[in-house]
Amino acid sequence: MNIAPFAAAPAPSTWWEGIVGVLVQIGWNILSVAGIILGAFILSWILKLVIRRVVNRIVSGAKNKANVDDTQALERSPLAAVRVVQRTRTLGSILQNIVNVTIVIIALVMIASLLAPNALGSLTLLSAAIGAGLGFGAQNIVKDVLNGMFIVAEDQVGIGDVVDLGLATGIVEYVSVRVTHVRDVNGTLWYVRNGEVLRIGNMSQGWSRVIIDLAVPVDADIGEVEAALLATATELANDAKWRTRVIEKPEVWGLESVSGDALVIRLVMKTRANAKDDVARELRMRVKHAIDHLGLSLPQLNSITLSGLEGAQRVRGANPPKTKPTPVPTATDRPVWKPKKGEAKPAAVAPPEEPAP
Predict the structure, then answer these.
(1) How far apart are CA 191 and CA 161, in angstroms?
(2) How far apart are CA 265 and CA 213, in angstroms?
(3) Domains in the chain, please, with CATH?
(4) Which residue ranges does the record annotate as region Disordered (predicted)?
(5) At a CB cut-off of 8 Å and minimum separation 6, what does 29 contact?
(6) What local confidence, expressed as pLDDT, does residue 63 receive?
């Protein structure tokens, strides 16, 4: 009977070499992962520094060109400089957000390929299956990102703009590819998803218009009141403190409504977008003093905002353009048949005689 010999136990030196090899491999993997993470932080810091430098240089160039030291003072410079500053800061915040997301994804893929080299092939199939499953749930995210990219690319909003997003109204403090941060007048910070923004009312682009409806007694002299209002508004527009905020000469649009209690006269002034509220307050105060000087009592003094059909008709001022009426042909404009030369006129047909009774 043959008895198999017992298996020889591994030598202690070989066992220790295997343990040391595993520990060395683990240590190298840890160092490699730490190096990738450190490199990602360094790359992110460098790219953010470059973006910040570029943004600061563009903003400083706009300030130097306008000969101002404060960004808020750019409202006295051409409107293009203001839009350059706001759009540059917005694009800077967007680029920093994109850099962070891109670097994190690349670092995670490199770490996964380092720790499990054979897992990327199966990870591709797994990610395709998960993507197909989450595609329906991620529609809102894709919609937010795409809409945010178009909002920034088309310069619809910028950091520092006063906007009305329908969901929130206030000052834009931060814009990302998915969410826009809006601070309202009460200090509440609203987070608005870009995909939910259907319309944007930007009150910081171009110009604004101060509209004041002044109600005077029914026995007041309309011509005298209109002359006093126009003189007061013109004095404000020529004032050294306010003339940089007024774009065009003020206008009196005339009598807006007549009632048994008061006559309403409308006064308007075109201003820079960021200076509308300040100019409106100063104008109301001066109008009040002018009416007091005339010895009239004010039933009301309102500052209104035109909207709807009235706002569309008054875009160009007191006398909006109107289309020409469609001409309606009259009896004299209708063509009359005339016989050609050499052609006899048709004989008139006599009416039939009535039979004798």
Answers:
(1) 15
(2) 6
(3) 19-124+136-201 (no CATH), 207-313 (3.30.70.100)
(4) 313-357
(5) 114, 115
(6) 55
